Amino acid sequence: MKKGIIIQASARSEGNTSKIVTFFQENTNFDILDLNTKNINHFDYDFKNSDDDFNAVFKDIVANYKTIVFATPIYWYTMSGLLKVFLDRISDFLMKEKDIGRKLRGMNMAVISCSDYDKTFDGFTMPFVESANYLGMEYKGHCHTWSEDNKVSEETKTRLKELIVNIEKED
Ligand SMILES: Cc1cc2nc3c(=O)[nH]c(=O)nc-3n(C[C@H](O)[C@H](O)[C@H](O)COP(=O)(O)O)c2cc1C
Questions:
Q1: What is the position in ligand 1's atom list of the atom closest to the CA of 77?
Q2: Are the C-beta atoms of 39 and 85 separated by less than 8 Å?
Q3: Taking the model in full, what pTM does it have?
Q4: Where are the domains of the chain?
Q5: What is the pLDDT of residues 126-143, one digit of tens each?
């Protein structure tokens, strides 16, 4: 079982979120999954999208990792559309192949948000906290981040290191 995977959910692979993800990766050795490089379609009640990339991605995550770290830019006060679609698609595995969906139970979830400032918005973490609770995952916390002069800010580095300590605490 590998330690963790960072799910990078920015609409660009080399943007601000990616800088943060790189710093986090260097300090954890977690793997990175860039959702921007995957073909993951919207949830469909008839599972018409089951031949896109989601099935393989999800099965790999639940088989191989202990911790999922969602890293999302703040778009319109909330998570990116890419990440929301990813979360919606988890429903595929709550409706069919439920044994695979149940493998999320006992896994850890943490969240990194990224914008241009030290500012978060009320309610940002609620969907993550509630989803972790619903899925039987342990919520390990949220860290808001931003860059200054095109570099990861020092305050951001400190906060990310605190989140890493929290993730690595024994259950
Ligand atoms: C579509 C869109 C919506 C955004 N909405 C917000 C917002 O609601 N609040 C905010 O602080 N920043 C907002 N931003 C700014 C981004 O959060 C910020 O530039 C972030 O660092 C972008 O990360 P990225 O390069 O990985 O996309 C928005 C940017 C875009 C492109």
A1: 8
A2: no
A3: 0.97
A4: 2-168
A5: 999 999 999 999 999 999
